[in-house]
Amino acid sequence: MGVLTDVKEVLGARELLLNLTRRELRGKYKGTALGWGWSLVNPLASTLIFTAVFSVVLRVQPPIGVDGLNNYALFLLCGLLTWNFFSGALSSGMGVLTGNGNLIKKTYFPRRLLVVSNIMALFVTYLIEMLVLAVIFLVFRVNVLPWIPLVLVVMLLTAVLALGFSLILSVVNVYFRDVAHFVAIALQIWFYATPIIYPITMVEATRDSAGWAGRFHIADIYLANPMVGLIEAIRDMWYSGTMPDFRLLGYVAALSIVLLWFGNYVFGRLEVRLGEEL
Amino acid sequence: MSAAVEVNHLSKRFRIYHERNQSLKVALMRGRRAKFDEFWALKDVDFEVPTGKTFGLVGHNGSGKSTLLKTMARILVPDRGGVEVHGKVSALLELGAGFHPELSGRDNVYLNGSILGLSRKEIDRRFDDIVGFAGLDEFIDTPVKNYSSGMYVRLGFSVAINVDPEILLIDEVLAVGDEEFQRKCMDKFHEFKEDGRTIVVVSHAMGTMRTLCDQVAWLSHGELQRIGGPNDVVDGYVEDAQTSARAQDDEQAYSREVSIEKAEVFGPSGPASPATTGQAATIRLHYAAKSPVVDPVFKIGIHTVEGDYVTGPSSRVAGMDVDRTGTRGRVDIEVPRLDLLPGGYILSSAVYSADMKKAYHRPLPVRFDVAAGRSRETLGLMTLNGDWVHVTEGVAPPVLGR
Questions:
Q1: DSSP A141-185
Q2: pLDDT value at position A157?
Q3: Is residue A245 part of a domain?
Q4: A201-204 long-range CB contacts below 8 Å, 24 or more apart?
Q5: What pLDDT does residue B18 have?
Q6: DSSP code at position B138
Q7: pLDDT exceeds cutoff 60 at A213
Q8: What phi, psi does B50 have (nearest 5°)?
Q9: Helix (H) or strand (E) holding B345
């Protein structure tokens, strides 16, 4: 029992963890002509779509960034890549136990590895995408290199948050299969509740209009969404060239760790009957 | 002698859902998940598997033997009691479980090996053995989705067996692959035994259980029925299997215009004398009829206790017409010389209507033993009772060195 033994168990099986991660990565684009290229084509396609709709048609103005940078696509990518990683981790993490039913019913290994390896595989893709984005920033003559260590910390924090959610969702999905549909909708709402396609200043601006019931403003609860803190931090550093809001990041870190602990607890409680429920 | 596996008052409960809809809506409306019945798959099972022995588990489908094996493999978690396993375990519950179809055989060997607890270096060292044993050298870099099912299973088996476990758990996978591969597997098992490793095996192949196991446990409805030497336990189990298989449908299923009240086999000295190989024997069916029945057909069948069908004669085939029964009577099958080898056999019998379309009655099979006569043969089912003669032809060369 206890978190420490769980962590030890996962680390003790790191060989398997790496193999499972490799399996995810290799299996993902096997048999496609583009192969790994797909992991870059996808964000490229959504960047084109969002830029066309929100920048060209709806004329969302990105804030002025470092050295007068004014580029919607760069602004968007700072948030989109992190969001794609997070939402991808949740939606695939949810099916990681149901999808490996046979493995769980016929072999024993720490079940957490499936959840962790899924996140690790996605994180590798995320890392490559972010590297490519850093190169693009450099092409635009924005020196993002000094920020990279801190950006890595934020990325890891995102992974911790995603892991906490995945642990809960994966195991609950075994017992209630319609969680998957519910989460798909929640992720859509969540996408729009996070400053990805629009700048956070537009949310603050809603204070000018009347709030609900006279006093309550959407901006008040907006920051409770941990994805806001994470995405804003990356954007502050790379797009605006300023220090992130450490108070907000501190909140996200605390929330992520509590969620990870809770997720691990729920997983531990429900995993004992996985072999028979699947 | 220490125990490799200790099963301590183990109980395992399953939930049987009446409606398997895992929907949140239903759960919220009821305030809980779908209704389920509890079913105890294992009830207070308690025994030890001694280190270095081959231990068999027998039982009907649903008797809990696979559940027990899965609990030993830590796939299922006990509800009461526990299982303690002393040593590194490799479970062969399904061969190639965990293979990723898109990945090559090579990648899957590494993946599967690490699931079974091997490090990369250890797999490197064993890789050639694994591939060689499976006989897949040419195909090892082909994605396993292109493998035949035989190749798939062979590779899975080969990985699992080369893990070097101290305790090997095997569920019903002895019968995989072609004959040559099966022989290789058997050799490997014997090698395992000689190395002093512990094997726990679940199988329906009773012959294999007798020859392979040092000890056998018989599970029935989740309870430990008997444990002991393989021949005793397997005999008991097989006999029970043959009688209980027919026990349920008995009473109502037959119209009993004629019923067989007793079936017996005896030797030359009359009823109750033992049937003996090489001597005369009688198989006698005692019948009763409510009212006389015209032209019924009597039939018997003899199986070995392993379940092999030996013979199945009938009065119709033998050309004997019963014509008309009395209200009581008997049918004898006089065997001039019984050629069955010594051992346990199962006698089943039945009586049919003249057109053979209706079974009037089929009593529960009975067991009988054939005693050893003068024949010293032990192999196979029967003796040919032949006289061995040697005839030389041509001129025999002089024997040298005499």
A1: T---GGGHHHHHHHHHHHHHHHHHHHHHHHHHHHH-TTHHHHHHH
A2: 97
A3: yes
A4: A201/A63, A202/A60
A5: 64
A6: G
A7: no
A8: -70, 145
A9: strand B343-352
List of chain B residues with pLDDT < 70: 1, 18-35, 173-177, 242-253, 396, 400-402
For domain B3-243, the CATH architecture is: 3-Layer(aba) Sandwich (3.40)
Interface test with A, best of B15, B16, B20, B22 (most A CBs within 10 A): B22
Counted domains in chain A:
1
Contact residues on chain A for B117, CB-CB shorter than 8 A: 16, 109
pLDDT in tens, A145-170: 999 999 999 999 999 999 999 999 99
Q: How many CB atoms lie within 10 A of CB B291?
A: 8
Domain positions in chain B are 3-243, 250-371
Q: Are the beta carbons of B134 and B144 closer than 8 angstroms? A: no
Residue with tokens 């290789």: B184
With CB atoms and an 8 Å threshold, state whether A27 touches B120.
no
For B128-280, where are the E strands, in sequence order? 167-171, 198-202, 215-220, 223-228, 258-266, 275-276
Surface of B (130-189) touching A: CB under 8 A: 143
For all residues of chain B together, what is the average pLDDT? 84
Within a domain: residue A206? no
Q: Which fold does the domain B250-371 belong to in CATH?
A: Coagulation Factor XIII; Chain A, domain 1 (2.70.50)
What amino acid is encoded at B355 in this protein? D
Length of chain B equals 402
Q: Which of B165, B29, B31 is nearest to B88 (CA)?
A: B165
Domain assignment of residue A270, given as a range: 3-200+216-277
Q: Which residues does A154 contact at the CB level (< 8 Å), separation at least 6?
A: A230, A233, A234, A244, A249
pTM across the whole model:
0.75
* Residue in B19, B75, B90, B94 to test binding to A, most A beta-carbons within 10 Å: B75
Beta bridge partners of B58: B218
Residue A254 one-letter amino acid: A
DSSP string, A182-244: HHHHHHHHHHHTSTTSS-THHHHGGGGSPPBTTTB-HHHHHTTSHHHHHHHHHHIIIII-S--
CB contact under 8 A, A19 and B110: yes
| A158 touches A166 (CB < 8 A) | no
The verdict on a CB contact (< 8 Å) between B119 and A182 is no
Whether ipTM exceeds 0.95:
no
Count CB-CB contacts under 10 A for residue B104. 18
The pLDDT, as a whole number, for residue B153 is: 83
User: To the nearest whole angstrom, how far is the Cα of A103 from the nearest Cα of chain B?
Assistant: 5
